[in-house]
Amino acid sequence: MDKIGIDLGGTKTEIAVLDANSGAELYRKRIPTERTYDGVVRGIRDLVQAAEKEVGRMCSVGIGIPGTVSRETGLVKNANSTWINGKPLDRDLRSVLNRDVRLENDANCFAVSEARDGAGAGADVVFGVIIGTGTGAGVVVHGSCLKGVNGIAGEWGHNPLPWNETPGRSCYCGKVGCIETWLSGPAFENDYFESAGKKKTAGEIAAAAAAGDVDAGAVLGRYVQRLAQGLAHVINIVDPDMIVLGGGMGKILSLYDAVPRIWGRYVFSDSVQTKLKPPVFGDSSGARGAAWLWP
Hints:
Layout: E1 3-8, E2 12-18, E3 25-32, H1 37-55, E4 60-65, E5 68-69, E6 76-77, H2 89-97, E7 102-105, H3 106-117, E8 125-131, E9 135-141, E10 144-146, H4 179-183, H5 185-196, H6 202-210, H7 214-238, E11 242-246, H8 255-263, E12 275-277, H9 285-291
Parallel strand pairs: 1-4, 4-7, 8-11, 11-12
Antiparallel strand pairs: 1-2, 2-3, 5-6, 8-9, 9-10
Helix pairs in contact: 1-2, 3-9, 5-7, 6-7, 7-8
C-alpha cells in the first residue's frame, strides 16, 4: 500500500504520497493551515481524498503534528497550534477517513526522514531541529526515533535558553524565556522590528544582513549566538553525530558556518565533531517522515 504523509504545520499543511516500495514521491500538495480544530480535520480529510483520487488508490495515512498525543488522555498536548490541544485528533481523523491513522510529533517525523535517507543518512545519532513558527526537535538513534516515557523526547524548545542573563518573553506554554521565544521565526522577526522599527520577514532580514545592513546584521549576529548556545546544550547532553536544521530558519545558509564557529565555547569538550547541516528534503521532510510511520 502506498503511503500518505501529512505535515500539519502552524502556517501550512502539506501532503505527500510515497510509493510503498521505492519511496519515490507520487504526489504533493500544500495548503494554508486552518486555525480552528474543525478546519484542521476538514482540511486533512480533503487533502487525503484529493491525493487518493490523483493516484487512484487508497493509501495508509501518517500525520506529523506540532505536539504529541497524551498517553493518559488520548488527547493532543503541547501543540503551539493551540486550537488542537485537548482534542481527540487521531480519533476524529479515523472517523472522517474511515481507516486507522498514525500521529507523531512533526519534529520526530522530520528527524526520521533526514536520518533515513537525508542529511543524516549513515549517522548513529541525529538531532533533527525544526525552527519555524515554533521550535521543536526529534532524536533518532541507530535509525529509531526516541520517544521517551512521557512522549516528549526532543522538546528542546521549551527549556530556557542556556547561558542567558535576560529573562525573555512569555511563552504560550505558560513559562518565560523558552528557547522558542528566542529562536523561532517570529522571535527573529520581532527582534528586528524592535531594533530597527521596521517589519521584514526572516528571509528579508537575512538578505539585508548579507548586503551589509547594520541593523539586520546585528539581529542575525544575536540569533547566531543564541542558536549556538541552545545547540551546545544539546551537544552536551545528547552528543549527536549530526544536527539537521529544518523549518523556515534553516533556509538561512549563513547559519551553517557561523553557528559551529561559536558553539565550541559552550560545549564541554576539547573539540566538537558534531556537524550542522541543512535538510536534504527541505521543509518537505516532515511529510516524508510522516509517511514512513507505516512500515
